[in-house]
Amino acid sequence: MEKSAARVKRWPDIGLFYCAAIWGSTFIVVKDALAGVHPVALVAIRFGIAALLLLPWALRRPKFTAHLKEGVILSVFLTGLYLTQTFGLVYTSAANSGFITGLFILFIPGFMFILRRQRLKWLEAVSAGLAVYGLWLLTGGADGFNKGDALTLIAAVTYAAHVAFTDKYMKADADMLLLAFHQFWCVSLASFLLAAALGYPLAVAAPKWWGVIIFLAVFPTVTAYFIQMAAQKVSEPFKVGLIFTLEPVFAAVFAWTLGGEEFVPVKAAGGFLIVSGMILGELAAFKLKRAAKKKAKLI
Asked: Does the predicted TM-score (pTM) go above 0.70?
């Protein structure tokens, strides 16, 4: 029975690893796609397609507008994340973007303190430090901080906020499908309105970029965010954040294998430190659970 329960508990972690892997594959993909579509248009179309894919199921829900408020709040963070990160990639490298986005792990404790008055444990702080140093080695750090890096730092803050608020809503048993649908169409609408207001082009230069946009809508958007929400029903935000710091690790692995880039030992060492930080974070969680069990027995 205990083994069966342990297997069930592993599935959320496996799902979060999938999210990190699929998001890690997008840095280079999005950077290339910006040659054929404006950053705001890319976000607008990507999330519009994702919302349309969910629409038939959303319409079948007894109350279509349920969780609209929560979806709007999450969409503010998601819009901020994707617009600043995508715009940032126009001015900075994929490596810088990966590193700075990964700094979101440092902001999660702040949001958790605001929402739960939950303080960071010392082992969690060490694990976050290891993960950030690993990110630095893996990506080469923020080389020559510029406008794109500043935009990406805003993306890191909104990323952390999205993880923290998703945790709040999923722990309250929100309907995953409606929560995803409402935030997706809100992100799309906000991006289309921004493009209209500022006169940004919405055209996609070539059919091949449509293939990239559809890939981004289906896998890193619909499937990954569904899995993230499902996992956050049972996983703590800091743990989710630690697993998500593997994004640039997966990005590097894809670059070394499918991309044919040169394997760099110092970058591999960075990846090792990120994984070490994640393991240390798990150790911190284990100690907390064991302490809680001992306290319960005494009571």
From this structure: yes
